[in-house]
């Protein structure tokens, strides 16, 4: 089956759930702030309701302090503004200059980026010096991220993951936000012999290559090519620059779909469409010059755009990837919008008809991943809004995606997923981190993880809640680039 979309659901219907969400999150943010020892590293996920660290890569601290900024945004409670503001200055500098990760858009847009957006919106008085500080951090972060570059045989390239120069992660499409913001602030990456490297161009190349190698389109690329499914990782020969194979770090296999990776793609491509639509045709065409996506072999083609496609190859690639991943998600989640952690998880064959009913986080075979749902719901709302404003699809199709986002949000705001226990530091229950590595806590007497939370799950639920709440209150539409002005 597919998600049972509620066509009558309106953002106003979710207001009681949103008010409860932000009431709960206030205490949980303060609980973590008061109990966490910075010497322990970065909080990642909960174990028996208490946040713990997991050394792998530093990608979640921005969510910790960014959550406080979202709390202020939604409620106006200035203690959370000051908390996020102070901790960004005190603890986020190393993330700005971190050369070893692909996660700058997660850490630094969530902190410096949110602060710049709030200052630009007039939500607090930022001095010229503070604003310059925020802009400088975002510029440097964008350049550092763009420098993590692997060149391919066709002359284009991608931002490689922390695994090394051979590795393109589907996650990173949402980290592209940092390149977009830095570009809008007028920054470039300076290379050898003072080469001026366009951050927008690197954004464009990475987006197209992610759409090309990490998203499938049902054209027979391999024996497991189903339109809209994603591979967590694309692996390349770094000597020749040739694509070698799909892979998965956190999913079950290279030929099944890790659903959080699917959600990252859906949300990331939808956000890029919103951003690209604000660029001048000169900037957009310049960033896309010479880019092409071969067809067939499972890649979206530049020579056969379907009806209503934008003419620009970069926007074509982002739109096709967003639509494909959105449709796949709708067809491969439970009827309430919650996905299993991987579409090919080995225990699913013992759960016949699991997509035909609401997800069951209490089952004993395979975990669900609520964090994937929180990320995907925002992606559906952004995709629906983009399609409605661009006129590239029918109003009915745009509405279908928007209503899907609202329907998933309603599920996440329910008692089954919202952490009502004041002793539990997490906000969104039933998040999964790394199932293959066995990192997620499994309670005594249980066979699979459930009932725990993650920094990214909590943050993205707040981001989703803020987006819906602003639509109800007729506030400005929140985007990652709202704090900048087109160059």
Description:
This protein is mainly alpha-helical and 487 residues long. It has one domain: Glycosyltransferase, CATH 1.50.10.10. It is built from 15 helices and nine strands. Strands 5-8-9 form a three-stranded antiparallel sheet, with no helix packed on it. Strands 1-2 form a two-stranded antiparallel ribbon. Strands 3-4 form a two-stranded antiparallel ribbon. Helix 13 packs parallel to helix 15. The longest helix is centred in the first third of the chain and has 21 residues.
Per the CATH scheme, the topology name is Glycosyltransferase
The helix count comes to 15
Structural domain tally: 1
CATH class value: Mainly Alpha
Strand content: 5-15%
Rg over C-alpha atoms, rounded to the nearest angstrom: 21 Å
Shape: globular
Known CATH architecture: Alpha/alpha barrel
Structural class determined from secondary elements? mainly alpha
**Amino-to-carboxy terminus distance:** 46 Å
Number of strands: 9
Helix content: 40-55%
- Mean pLDDT across all residues, rounded? 95
Uncertain residue ranges = 296-308
Q: Helix and strand succession?
A: HEEHHHHHHEEEHEEHEEHHHHHH
How would a textbook summarize the main sheet?
A: 3 strands, antiparallel
């Amino acid at each position: 089956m597919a998600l049972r979309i509620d066509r009558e659901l309106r953002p106003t219907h979710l207001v009681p759930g949103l008010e409860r969400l932000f009431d709960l999150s206030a205490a949980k943010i303060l609980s973590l702030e008061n109990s966490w020892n910075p010497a322990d590293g970065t909080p990642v996920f909960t174990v028996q309701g208490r946040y713990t660290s997991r050394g792998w890569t530093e990608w979640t601290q921005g969510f910790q302090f960014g959550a406080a900024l979202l709390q202020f945004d939604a409620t106006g409670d200035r203690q959370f503004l000051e908390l996020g503001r102070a901790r960004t200055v005190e603890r986020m500098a190393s993330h700005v200059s971190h050369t070893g990760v692909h996660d700058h858009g997660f850490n630094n847009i969530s902190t410096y980026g949110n602060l710049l957006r709030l200052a630009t919106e007039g939500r607090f008085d930022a001095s010229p010096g503070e604003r310059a500080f925020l802009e400088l951090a975002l510029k440097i972060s964008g350049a550092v991220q763009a420098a993590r570059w692997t060149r391919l045989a066709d002359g284009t390239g991608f931002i490689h993951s922390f695994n090394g120069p051979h590795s393109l992660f589907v996650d990173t499409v949402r980290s592209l936000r940092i390149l977009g913001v830095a570009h809008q602030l007028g920054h470039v990456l300076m290379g050898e012999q003072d080469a001026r490297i366009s951050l927008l161009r690197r954004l464009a190349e990475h987006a197209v290559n992610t759409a090309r190698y990490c998203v499938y389109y049902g054209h027979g690329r391999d024996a497991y090519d189903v339109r809209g499914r994603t591979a967590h990782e694309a692996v390349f020969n770094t000597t020749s620059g040739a694509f070698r194979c799909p892979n998965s770090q956190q999913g079950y296999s290279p030929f099944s779909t890790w659903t959080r990776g699917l959600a990252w793609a859906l949300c990331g491509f939808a956000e890029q469409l919103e951003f690209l639509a604000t660029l001048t045709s000169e900037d957009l065409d310049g960033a896309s010059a010479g880019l092409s996506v071969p067809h067939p072999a499972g890649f979206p083609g530049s020579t056969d755009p379907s009806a209503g496609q934008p003419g620009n190859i970069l926007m074509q690639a982002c739109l096709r990837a967003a639509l494909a991943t959105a449709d796949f998600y709708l067809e491969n989640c439970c009827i309430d919008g919650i996905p299993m952690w991987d579409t090919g998880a080995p225990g699913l064959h013992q759960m016949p008809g699991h997509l035909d009913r609401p997800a069951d986080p209490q089952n004993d075979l395979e975990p669900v991943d609520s964090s994937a749902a929180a990320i995907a719901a925002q992606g559906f709302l952004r995709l629906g809004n983009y399609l409605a404003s661009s006129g590239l699809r029918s109003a009915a199709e745009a509405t279908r995606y928007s209503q899907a986002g609202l329907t998933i949000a309603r599920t996440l705001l329910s008692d089954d997923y919202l952490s009502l226990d004041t002793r539990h530091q997490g906000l969104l229950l039933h998040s999964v981190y790394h199932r293959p590595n066995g990192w997620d806590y499994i309670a005594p007497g249980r066979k699979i993880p459930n009932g725990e939370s993650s920094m990214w799950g909590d943050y993205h639920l707040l981001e989703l809640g803020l987006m819906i709440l602003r639509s109800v209150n007729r506030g400005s539409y929140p985007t990652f680039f709202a704090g900048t002005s087109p160059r």
